[in-house]
Amino acid sequence: MIEVRFFATFREGRDKVSLLEPKDFKTAGDILDHFRIHREEVAILLINGLYSPADTAVKDGDVIALFPPVGGG
Amino acid sequence: MRYERQLLIPQIGQSGQEKLKKSKVTVIGVGGLGSPVLTYLVSAGVGRIQIVDCDVVSESNLNRQFLHHTVDIGRAKVLSAQEKLASLNPEVKVSTVNQRLNPDNVKEYISGSDVVVDCVDNAETRIMAAAACMELDIPLVEGGVRGFYGYVMDIGKDYPCLSCLGYDTVKQKTPVPVLGVTAGIIGCMQANECIKLLLGIGAPLYGRMLNYDGLSGNWEEVHVKKAADCPIHARAEAGKRGK
Lengths: 73, 243
Ligand SMILES: [Zn+2]
Prior knowledge:
A: 10% helix, B: Rossmann fold, 8 helices, binds zinc ion
């Protein structure tokens, strides 16, 4: 399975973690589309802790983490 | 005795307190994160603190930026903060930089700091501060908030930076929603990391993005990796070789 971990506001209206069938998804971008998350809403996309563009291929066992932008002031 | 209670902590004691007194920290941004960071670093007795911000206080800052009060609206943030911090602990030297950081001045301002704490509200300055810290080999404490959520992470030249995580591709169009207390919690965590780094105690959050979820009441750690093609790390390496 592919594990998708949502952080911050991406959790709203979703489970914190989703498990997906690897056969249904070729790239990280397909997963974003599945959850109706626009590319420009994502500040950080990690696959197994490593920055990955949306066109990166995904496979069974991958852990994907998604973060929106943050502020400080 | 101002520091009596923290002198009792075995990891601090008299020698740790002297270390704090000899330390210099630069805090970039005197807003929602900067307010708790500065309050706790000043009360802990960090000897010299430089605060950098080019904004003036506005009414919409007051839900989270507690170093600024209603009477400060319209004043420079660095001056408003300096006044409160001097009253809290006159033993600490607080210097101010009332300027926007840019690629030409950033290294000049942060050099000589033992730790830099990033409390800014835009991706551009975050990345610029990280690049300068890495070139100068100064540890940087990162923090960010959004609504009820936030994260904190330490950055160093041998550890992943925000650019490693692809953060520099982000364009923020609208103000980020922030609850004051969330900024307070994350800012306190940044102050804690800063004190750990100054004293060389505990396990710094290098390569560990610690995420806070104030709605579910959870903290979750995400282990992050240095990117092989990170432009900031590449520049820091090239700068070192050039010397
Ligand atoms: Zn990097």
